[in-house]
Amino acid sequence: MSFQQPATPLLATSGLPYTSPGHPHNSSFSPAEGDAQPVQAASPGSASGSDSSLDRQIRTNIQTIRSNLLAIEENLGNLNRRFVSRRIVESLHDRLRETYDIVLSTERLFK
């Protein structure tokens, strides 16, 4: 089985070292159906800044990160078995991008 290289090479951006044509990094990422929605960090002066709210956001973010890492691991397993498709590569990029954004959001919640 041969793998075709994309018509345009992968691009590096200042925010993330991974992006591909047609999948620019932006804040309007929409997860696939059934994926957990990422939770955004509360703004510093918001009224909903209680400890229990932050705890829930952190727990939700951690669960989403775990889910994404499991999906990434499954896709990497497919790559190791030489089952490479454009959909798998795009899924890896999307999951990595979402996980990176959620990790940053969770770090902000701890600050």
Write a concise synopsis of the structure shown.
The protein has 111 residues and is mainly alpha-helical.
Relevant terms:
single chain; 2 helices; 111 residues; disordered N terminus; 50% helix; mainly alpha
The strand count comes to: 0
Major sheet:
none
- Give the CA-CA distance, first to last residue: 48 Å
Radius of gyration: 16 Å
Helical proportion? 40-55%
Q: What is the count of helical runs?
A: 2
Question: How would you describe this structure to a colleague?
Answer:
The protein is mainly alpha-helical. The protein has a domain at 51-110. It has two helices and no strands. The protein is elongated and about 50 Å long. Mean pLDDT is 67; it is low at 1-47. Helix 1 packs antiparallel against helix 2. The protein has helices spanning 51-80, 86-110.
